[in-house]
Write a structure and sequence with these properties.
This protein has 408 residues and is of the alpha/beta class. Helices cover 30% and strands 33% of the residues. It contains 12 helices and 15 strands. The strands form 2 sheets. Strands 1, 2, 3, 4, 5, 6, 7, 8, 9, 10 and 11 form an 11-stranded mixed β-sheet that branches.
Length: 408
């Protein structure tokens, strides 16, 4: 009996080896798979219009650059629209490498979870894929080109995933976190708004440059943008900005955070080491402009509920140094060891306090609990949850403490 068992194991191992080397395990030919880098979703005529951006490797002996291709499909569901992109192209849409999902502005007035549920539940897309809101059309955002990247989705991801040392001015969010915020007690979440910064629109119009596209049958569209060695093709004059944030309540957009408020929001929940603070204050003879670099930031938040109401304490301790300034002081004090003036410290603290207080005001005005006050009340003040949970955003009183220190 033992000999037969060993024999069957050997036979199964040999059979699996034959299948492996003959590639019979592959359900789809690799040459027919489309590696999708980004998905853009819009609402057109009551249907979902999904545009996928595909990275097409075309490296040759004379050029090592890749081109991009957009394919658009429509459907009554997100899954159906993505499947339609494969039907019209003959390429199987591979979503395992998709790190960016762009939501069109046309979907803001409806429950956006209807769109994201597909990506949250399917195993074809990783939960860490970033979601952003396009200022206008999501498809048009993918069609924009930049002078630094041939593929627009890569350019957008660069401003979302900034390395330490850059300004922490983008409130990034992924599929998992957004859906978790939607289904928890607050029902609130957020995502960055991506806008196009066109610095040379007039020059583009005068040169007559435009993106090339081809209209397919049944309302499907595909386009391809590449670069050639001759340099005659448009390299793109667009850059992207994601320093504003969209707020969602029950999947519907209810407000926005401006640049200063987004920056303050990141101070509460993210590592802001390396970010900068630009401060103008009145010096002895003129308005002096300082650029402060944050070297260390410790943030503590605590919610306390009692019979008198709800208080949320926010303590921010920042250690920074002067990175640059334009004062008229041209002596040895311009070294890197120049201490922070007391007036500058006081004004910077007041600016940050006002920005933190603005976050609570926006939360109250929009009824969007992006600060997770209701969730904190449930966890740390459960005794008063039933009493305050409906009006907790109106009742909460912030106590902001900001301490800035620098080189002595």
């Amino acid at each position: 009996m033992k000999k037969h068992r060993i024999l069957w194991i050997i036979i199964l191992f040999a059979f699996a080896t034959v299948l492996f080397f003959s590639n019979d395990f592959g359900l789809i030919d690799v040459e027919k798979e489309a590696i999708i880098t980004a998905v853009a979703i819009d609402n057109e005529d009551g249907k979902y219009s999904v545009t996928v951006q595909i990275a097409v490797p075309e490296a040759t002996s004379t050029s090592a650059q890749n081109t991009k291709t957009q394919i658009t499909g429509k459907g009554d569901t997100i899954g159906g629209a993505i499947k339609n992109t494969g039907d019209v192209s003959g390429w199987f849409p591979q979503l395992a490498f998709c790190n960016l999902i762009i939501i069109g502005n046309s979907l803001c007035s409806t429950d956006i979870i209807k769109v994201l549920d597909f990506f949250a539940k399917t195993l074809r897309v990783q939960d860490s894929a970033q979601i952003v809101l396009a200022d206008n059309s999501a498809r048009e955002l993918l069609e924009k080109t930049t002078p630094l990247d041939n593929i627009s989705s890569f350019a957008i991801q660069k401003i979302l995933f900034k390395n330490p040392g850059f300004d922490t001015d983008v409130a990034t969010n992924d599929i998992k976190t957004f859906c978790a915020g939607y289904y928890d007690l607050s029902g609130s979440s957020f995502m960055p708004i991506v806008k196009v910064l066109d610095f040379n629109a007039k020059q583009e119009n005068s040169n007559g440059s435009s993106s090339q596209g081809q209209q397919g049958s049944n309302g499907q569209q595909s386009s391809s943008d590449g670069s050639s060695g001759g340099g005659s093709e448009d390299k793109g004059k667009n850059f992207f900005d994601a320093s504003t944030t969209a707020l969602f309540l029950k999947g519907i957009k209810v407000g926005e955070l401006n640049e200063a408020q987004t920056h303050a929001f990141n101070f509460l929940w993210r590592n802001v080491k390396g970010t900068t603070l630009s401060v103008n204050y009145s010096g002895a003879n003129e308005i002096e402009r300082y650029l402060l670099k944050v070297l260390r930031c410790n943030t503590k938040t605590k919610l306390k509920a009692d019979d008198k109401g709800i208080k949320m304490k926010v303590e921010v301790d920042i250690y920074c140094k002067i990175a640059d300034h334009n004062s008229g002081d041209h002596n040895a004090n311009l070294s890197n060891n120049k201490p922070l003036p007391n007036d500058l410290i006081e004004q910077t603290e007041n600016i940050l306090k006002n920005n933190f207080n603005d976050l609570f005001k926006v939360s109250k005005q929009t009824n969007c609990d992006f600060l997770q006050i209701r969730q904190r009340l449930y966890r740390f003040g459960h005794k008063y949850y039933e009493r305050y949970q409906k009006d907790c955003l109106d009742l909460v009183k912030p106590e902001i403490s900001v301490r800035i220190s620098g080189q002595k």
